Amino acid sequence: MKLRLIRCLVWGLLPLLALSACSVNRRPDWVNTHPQTSDYYYSIVKIDKHLADYKELARERALRDIAMQIVVQVQGQIESSETEIGGVASSVFLSRIQSSTTASLNDVELYSSYQDAQDYHAWYRLNKAQYRALRERRKSLALQQAVDLLFRYDNSGGDLTGGIGYLLQGLEVLDEFIDLSLVAPYQSKNIQVYQELLSRLQSLPALLELKIEPGELETVAWQKTNTILAVTLSKNGQAVQGFPLSASASATGTRIFAASLTDPNGMFEIRLEEVSNFITLQDIHVNVDKNMFSRQIKSPALALIWDRLSFNPAVLKIKVRKPRISLEYRVDGKADAESYNQVSGRLVDFDLALAETQEQADYSLRVDVYIRDGAYIPEIGVQSALGSPSLSLMNNATGEILYSETIPNLKGTGKTLELARLRARQNVAEYLCEELIYNAIASKIYP
Questions:
Q1: H/E stretch holding 378
Q2: pLDDT tens-digit profile of 337-375?
Q3: Would you state the CATH architecture of domain 34-130?
Q4: Fewest Cβ atoms closer than 10 Å to its Cβ: which of 152, 237, 316, 328?
């Protein structure tokens, strides 16, 4: 009797248990119909259960989705204002806001989940009021830091390198909150902190003065000069020390060596070593080394603001002239106009300017040719003569002999001795033009 009663109870409960199981495994409505709520940012994601770490993948996808919802909302607020900040469209700040938003979504909660044989469904949400309160707290901390950095800049004195660093740091800690109010008390009044930092940064070009001495310089192409140029940097008339400057030449082949920082007197030294080109007018520009500061900037918007900030350079005008060379050409101790003209024309071909006197020249070329009678060959009735040129090239500024060579016995022949001596003299001039002068000029003046 009891056994029969138990069997009846079991069979009676089976439908109820089956109904309960169906109720537990029933697909919830939110999987197909997303809920409508104004109090939360939410994301409903579906991930294949056969993927490794599918639950973590679901959370990562939901965080990205919620972060994008927040950024879209911020973007709408920014674009509605249609403002520019430091000459940069306010929308440029969005990438920074997006990255900071993604990193601060610790309060996103898994509100509900459901899985079937194939997929995992998850409903994540973030309370909007709690997120706004969190962001306000983070903004307050950033404002405190930025106000401190502003104070440090205002009291940095002659340390302009550190001062600019304070301004850039202050702007960077605030730019992810550019859509919020950034007003804070400072020196007994309320200020818009970001705008105050930006205003000080953008006023720097007008406060800085770069000077270079001399302002103009004449130099000779392809001559080592080692000319020292003195640059001074001041802010409101006071020397700026330890500040990064950079120097650049407008022409390739103009070699300069420059320090990297100003000295305690605000001096910056440049050494012009050589101008290895024939560009007549060229410049050396000295300016703030902005790259030194760019390396510490992470924000795309701030990088663009800094890049657009234009400082006034110091400019040295250089006039470059060809090397001047004087030529003294003698045959057997006497001037030879024909050979002089031939050799001087060849010198001009080497981009040298011909000077009338040695005093006007950078280099002096002296050629002494000695002609002596050669043998007479009676069988063919030909007389020979031998010419021996000696060549000497001197740097007039130093007195150094750069090149010296003697070539013996360059032959000339003719039916008469007079003709043989003439041809020997002509052959010497031709040899000088084709061989010897090229070797001297190419190796010593234009190495």
A1: none
A2: 999 999 999 999 988 999 999 999 999 999 999 999 999
A3: Roll (3.10)
A4: 237
